[in-house]
Specification:
Elements: E1 4-8, E2 13-18, E3 27-28, H1 30-45, E4 51-56, E5 64-65, H2 67-73, H3 77-97, E6 111-115, E7 119-120, H4 122-129, E8 132-136, E9 143-144, H5 158-166, H6 168-176, E10 180-181, H7 183-189, E11 194-196, H8 199-209, H9 212-215, H10 234-251, H11 256-269, H12 273-288, H13 291-308, E12 323-327, H14 331-342, E13 346-350, H15 354-373, H16 379-387, E14 389-392, E15 403-406, H17 412-423, E16 431-434, H18 441-444, E17 454-459, E18 468-473, H19 479-491, E19 495-500, H20 507-524, H21 528-537, H22 544-551, H23 553-567, H24 574-585, E20 598-600, E21 606-609, H25 612-616, H26 626-646, H27 653-664, H28 673-680, H29 682-696, H30 704-712
Helix pairs in contact: 1-3, 3-12, 5-6, 5-11, 10-11, 11-12, 13-27, 14-15, 15-16, 20-22, 20-24, 20-26, 21-26, 23-24, 26-28, 29-30
The structure holds nicotinamide-adenine-dinucleotide.
């Protein structure tokens, strides 16, 4: 393997080019780092080399560290991680000091980086160790340190260098939020030094002219003071106190990466640079040994990407969608039209009346206008996207569509009617998908003349924001329909999971019990504030009561009535109905009615919890323990996920975990319900679930799959993190 190569020119500039074999984007591996280290040694030792320019042979510089390597580093235990990270620090420090005399700081060789495009993670940490960074004037390039987004922090010196370069306050958005910038903004923020047309030429020129003083980093120079002040400086003190509170407020203390990052920054700021690097490495090791970070990397990076690349795609020729027909231009149809037209797909958007179809198309106009006002789009782009959407009532316009997505009213008769009308027009090999959220796919497929070409493609609302799409196989759905749905989801850049047909599919099946458990507690007299905070302190983005306000109370009433009708006497949720029926009768239908479990102001902004809750359902004198509430809220979702796997609705736990985080925000720090149960261990999980079942009823009963795992000493992902498939 050769990732890095070096070429010396007649002027004495050594050009090191990073061009990872067989990869479209450079990512750093341990082998790659060793190659780079050897080349730097060679350049520093070679008297004919005056300086070094580091660049990439690809259109981008680098996407970061190979996260598979980070995941694998844990094999060597904490010491292995620490040694690996320190090895990297050593290499970067060697580049930074570039052979200069330790006392006089003279005699080093200038090393500059030339970034042709994107530089992320270690792809920016490495340039930060060089003496000057030149970036191509490429507005598509993204520059930054996104590590925090996958549950780690910049551990290749980025944390220490950026804090010392910009000061803690200015570095915060890049380190704590993973903010990415284009080259111009990155220069303005001080992340890089220059934006030029030809970065390699500019870097070369700079290297040939650089003086000894140009090579000494501020933190290696005498009298260095951290911009914005160190922790015990009055201004710095304010920054750190504020940052701690802000981070804790945002993360509720459940994201170990944010805490570890802040600790590395704070403690590092109190000591000399090389000690700070060691502290950074210790915190990074601490973080990698925390199961949350591996679970987040696994779900949010490795498995999410695998699913997007078609890990569960059946063998079938390319099914890229060229012309899409959408039936129903309501909230969902309009959103699906927008994301599809944005992806370059020609769209026919059908509704009963022309003005309804036009309204559906106008939704795209609205979103594009908003993007233009935020300088995220242009008039030309808007015209191009809108030209792809034909709004009509005429089913004949569906001719030539290779995929139909039906999003009409949730009524089997209406759905059957539009299925027949569309199938009369579309080509014989077209695939027909329904966006139903509650009706079984196999039942709806009965209206189709080609049930093997009939499938569920379930979007979440709002379509343009939600990243997950659930693909549902009916009893007769064939492999080409699955491939088509997956290729479509890939075109519109969302993440797919493929599940089998069962009531509420996967996401809604797990989220409804979460909402219900919250409402049940209100009926029991548990303080609503306690319920909402308990959920948030477990890392749920919304408490169950806020969530039901968002999705609307009347939808809850509708689902409750349908479920009661289907289950008859076995219906277990009477206590919940009492609460939501009462709210619905009082017109408190949730956010859209500006009244629900919460109060809202005139503009629809959420205020506090509604004081009337306490009148209708008085708070019990003794309130349950916080942990018990948290267990109820987390187990009710996770046990449902296990049952979905047990019943074969889910076929792959990777989909269960990724789908839970993207679909309904299941505590992302945990990596998803299966990862969460693994972190706890099957034995403890089964014991807690058993206790909850004894106290609150059979909805918490230990699933057989879980008790079998306890008996066999197994976990979902297994010791190697391999995906556990349903039998
Ligand atoms: P909606 O009421 O906003 O839109 C439905 C649209 O279909 C309306 O514009 C209506 O005029 C049109 N329509 C009705 N009959 C038609 C016919 N015969 N031919 C053409 N158009 C017709 O509903 P929605 O929220 O967009 O939901 C649509 C579907 O998506 C439903 O099956 C729903 O279960 C599902 N869904 C909804 C959500 C959600 O959050 N709202 C989420 C996922 C899935």
């Amino acid at each position: 393997m050769t990732d890095f190569t070096m070429k010396k020119d007649a002027d004495g500039v050594a050009l090191i080019t990073w061009d990872a074999e067989a990869k479209s984007m450079n990512v750093l591996t341990m082998e790659g780092a060793a190659e780079l280290s050897a080349l730097i040694d060679e350049a520093l030792a070679d008297a004919s080399v005056k300086g070094v320019v580091l660049t990439s042979g690809k259109k981008d510089f680098a996407g970061g560290m190979d996260l598979n390597v980070i995941a694998g580093m844990k094999a060597g235990g904490a010491q292995g991680v620490f040694d690996g990270v320190m090895g990297l620090h050593h290499l970067l420090r060697k580049i930074e000091l570039a052979g200069m005399d330790a006392k006089t700081k003279k005699g080093g060789k200038p090393i500059a980086t030339a970034l042709p495009g994107t530089a992320l993670g270690i792809g920016l940490e490495l340039p930060l160790a060089t003496h000057r960074i030149f970036a191509a004037d490429n507005p598509k390039a993204k520059i930054g340190l996104p590590e925090i987004m996958v549950g780690i922090f910049p551990g290749g010196g980025g944390t220490t260098r950026l804090t010392r370069k910009l000061g803690a306050m200015m570095a915060a958005p890049f380190l704590l939020e993973g903010k990415l910038s284009d080259p111009t903004k990155a220069k303005a923020a001080g992340l890089i030094d220059e934006v030029v047309a030809d970065p390699v030429a500019a870097a070369r020129e700079w290297v040939l002219k650089a003086t000894d003083a140009d090579l000494v980093k501020p933190w290696d120079a005498k009298g260095y003071k951290m911009p914005g002040g160190e922790p015990y400086h009055p201004a710095g003190f304010m920054t750190f106190v504020g940052a701690s509170a802000m981070v804790h407020g945002k993360t509720m203390g459940v994201y170990p990466a944010a805490k570890a990052l802040l600790s590395a920054v704070y403690e590092g700021a109190l000591v000399p640079f090389d000690t700070a690097l060691k502290i950074e490495a210790r915190w990074f090791t601490n973080l990698l040994m925390n199961p949350s970070s591996s679970a987040m990397i696994r779900s949010l990076f490795i498995n999410k990407e695998a699913l997007e690349k078609g890990a569960n795609r059946p063998e079938a020729p390319d099914q890229t969608v060229k012309k899409l027909g959408i039936l129903g231009a309501g909230m969902m149809g309009a959103g699906i039209a927008y994301v599809s037209a944005m992806a370059g797909i020609e769209v026919v958007l059908i509704d009963n009346a022309q003005d309804a179809a036009e309204r559906g198309k106008a939704y795209s106009t609205g979103l594009l206008d908003k993007a233009i006002s935020r300088r995220k789009s242009t008039e030309e782009k808007k015209a191009e996207v809108l030209a792809r959407i034909t709004a009509t009532t005429d089913y004949a316009a569906l001719q030539g569509c290779d995929l139909i997505v039906e999003a009409v009213f949730e009524d089997p008769t209406v759905k059957a009617d539009v299925t027949k009308r569309a199938e009369a027009v579309i080509p014989g090999d077209a695939i027909f998908a329904t966006n139903t959220s509650t009706l079984p796919i196999s039942g709806l497929a009965k209206a189709s003349a080609r049930p093997e070409q009939f499938i569920g493609i379930h979007f979440f609302s709002p379509v343009d924001k939600m990243l997950l799409v659930e693909i549902i196989k009916g009893k007769e759905t064939g492999p080409r329909a699955v491939a088509k749905a997956l290729d479509f989801v890939r075109q519109i850049r969302k993440t797919p999971i493929v599940v089998n047909d069962a009531r509420f599919f996967y996401a809604n099946r797990c989220i409804i019990p979460y909402i219900n458990e919250g409402i049940r507690m209100v009926a029991e007299g548990v303080s609503p504030v306690l319920i909402e905070n308990a959920a948030k302190m477990m890392g749920m983005p919304l408490g169950p009561l806020q969530l039901v306000d968002e999705t609307s109370i009347d939808l809850g009433v509708k689902i409750a009535k349908a479920t009661r009708a289907a289950m008859g006497d076995a219906y277990p949720d009477g206590a919940i109905d009492e609460v939501i029926f009462k709210l619905a009768d009082a017109g408190r239908l949730g956010r859209k009615a500006k009244a629900g479990f919460y109060d809202y102001d005139e503009a629809g902004k959420r205020q506090g919890l509604w004081s009337g809750i306490a009148d209708a359902w008085p708070e019990a004198e003794t309130q349950p323990d916080l942990t018990e509430i948290q267990h109820r809220l987390m187990f009710i979702q996770s046990l449902e996920a296990v049952r979905a796997l047990e019943e074969g609705v889910l076929e792959d736990i990777r989909e269960g975990d990724v789908g839970a985080i993207l679909g309904w925000g299941f505590a992302p720090w945990s990596g998803g319900p299966f990862s969460w149960l693994d972190i706890m261990g099957a034995e403890r999980a089964a014991a807690i679930s058993g206790d909850l079942a004894a106290k609150f009823g059979p909805r918490f009963a230990v699933p057989k799959l879980l008790s079998d795992m306890v008996a066999k000493g197994e976990s979902f992902y297994g010791p190697e993190g391999a995906a556990h498939k349903a039998a």
